[in-house]
Each structure stands twice: as structure tokens, then as C-alpha cells.
Design a protein that fits this description.
- This protein has 267 residues and is an alpha+beta fold.
- It has one domain: Beta Polymerase, domain 2.
- Helices cover 36% and strands 14% of the residues.
- The chain has nine helices and nine strands.
- Strand 8 and strand 9 form a beta hairpin.
- Helix 1 runs antiparallel to helix 2.
């Protein structure tokens, strides 16, 4: 039976489908697309305008974008199933987030899979811990290493065979968790069968632009790691430029050219 298979076997199956058959057909018009939403609020800290309403992602994304977003959602769901956390009782607690989504976009194998466990008053974190320890004997405690930049982290367990990290947090809401992420491209999150991201987050992933979300949680080694992997920092715009200029190299370049032309004309 599937449920009796090991976590490593199930993760390996996920990797096999995505990387041995990367061009498998994904129909963007299946019923599941109706569950996708663009949540336009400031939980990703990159929105200029905020709202508490969820809007269909077709309002902001092309068909090709939707196909990629659907693939991200399927992969996140696969990870939850493989970890045996796909039960309604744990649905409120389990959030998949982090850099795995940008890896999926660019067609590379994720370095790790971050499974965040939200806190609650019902004590379900302890139930989840018991479930994980019962089903997986390869878990190692890496709390001290992971929590050095965030005192909201209670415990981190990792299975080095599958590179799945289980991160137990003091956060009770997905929005609060995401606000503390260092870079925008890591802020895609999957929770309760929905994938949350903004257009700006998606574009940061697409262009591999290193946009700071929370400078209190950035670290120089993380920045250098991304730069070495081909990510680039936003172009520096003149201080009088509009607030969106730093996020577009082309716009910043156009502004610089315009300024130079005005100087040449004595304006």
C-alpha cells in the first residue's frame, strides 16, 4: 500500500516524475485551477496596493504562468502526501514555503523542502512530531543551526536522505510566517490546498532578482550564496526615481538615460 512506503521512496518518486519527465503535460484548465488564487494583500510585503480579497490568478498571470504555478502547487501537495501530513487534522498547521518553488520554476532539483508547522492552542504540533518520529527514523535535530536568525523557531528536524526539513514555529498564521522571510523569491507558500504568491514575487523568481523582504533576517552568507548561483540585485535607481524603479533594470536604465540627456541639453 502507498501509505506503507517510506518517505524516501515517496520523495524519490516525486523527483523522478519532475526530472525524468520534465515535459509531462499539465492541463491548466482542469478543475483544480479554480482553487488557485492571487492573494493581493501585504503578507508578501511586496504589494503597492493591498486588499483582503482573493482574486483569480488569471487576473494577473498568463496561461504559461498558470501552468508553472499549477506545477508548483502539485509539487507542494506531493511533498505533504509523501510526509504523511495530508490529513484534515493537520491542514491548518502545515505550510510549504521557501526556495523550492524557484527551483521548480528554473527546472533544477530543490536543495531541500521546507515544511513549516504552525502553532495552535490544540497542541497539534506535538501530534505532528509524534507522527513524524513514528514514520521516520532518520530525523536529525538541526535547531541550533536554523534558528540563529529567528527566535520564533522552536525546533528543526531534517531527514538528510530526502532533504525534507520540518520546522516547528511559534507562528500561528501563514501571513506572519511569510513576513519574516528574508528575500521575496522565497515567499511563495502553500497552505490548505492553495498556493499564495504575488505578481512581484513571481517576477523575482522568473528574473532571478534578489529583492530583500525583511532586512532584519538577511545574512551575508545567504546573499553571497544566491549571487554565486546567478541571482542579481536590483538596479540602483536615482533617489528621485519612483518607488518601483529599483525593481526593473530596464526602467532604471531608461531613467538614467533620460537624466543624462537632460544634463546634455542643459536642463
Amino acid at each position: 500500500m502507498i501509505q506503507n512506503r517510506s518517505l524516501q521512496d515517496r520523495i524519490n518518486d516525486i523527483v523522478k516524475v519532475d526530472y525524468d519527465y520534465p515535459n509531462r503535460e499539465i492541463n491548466p484548465y482542469i478543475q483544480e485551477v479554480a482553487d488557485y488564487y492571487l492573494k493581493q494583500q501585504n503578507d508578501n510585503m511586496t504589494q503597492t496596493h493591498t486588499t483582503d480579497k482573493e482574486q483569480p490568478m488569471t487576473n494577473a498571470f498568463s496561461d504559461d504562468d498558470i501552468m508553472m504555478i499549477e506545477k508548483m502547487k502539485i509539487r507542494a501537495k506531493d511533498v505533504i502526501v509523501a510526509c504523511h501530513l495530508d490529513t484534515p487534522r493537520f491542514a491548518d498547521n502545515v505550510v510549504i514555503a521557501g526556495g523550492m518553488f524557484s527551483s521548480i520554476f528554473h527546472g533544477v532539483k530543490p536543495k531541500d523542502y521546507d515544511v513549516f508547522l504552525l502553532d495552535d492552542e490544540q497542541g497539534r504540533q506535538f501530534e505532528i512530531l509524534q507522527t513524524l518520529q513514528k514514520l521516520n527514523k532518520n530525523l536529525k535535530d538541526t535547531t541550533e543551526l536554523y534558528s540563529r536568525n529567528n527566535d520564533k523557531i522552536k525546533m528543526v528536524l531534517i531527514d538528510y536522505n530526502t532533504n525534507v526539513q520540518f520546522i516547528f514555529t511559534e507562528y500561528e498564521h501563514r501571513e506572519d510566517l511569510i513576513k519574516h522571510f528574508d528575500y521575496a523569491h522565497t515567499m511563495v507558500s502553500y497552505h490548505k490546498d492553495k498556493l499564495y504568491l504575488t505578481r512581484k514575487t513571481f517576477d523575482a523568481i522568473r528574473t532571478k532578482t534578489l529583492i530583500v523582504n525583511n532586512d532584519k533576517h538577511t545574512a551575508s552568507w545567504r546573499k553571497q550564496k544566491f549571487l554565486a548561483a546567478g541571482w542579481t540585485e536590483p538596479a540602483t535607481a536615482p533617489p528621485w526615481a519612483p518607488p518601483w524603479a529599483p525593481y526593473s533594470t530596464n526602467i532604471a536604465a531608461d531613467i538614467a538615460k533620460m537624466q543624462k540627456k537632460m544634463e546634455e541639453n542643459g536642463q
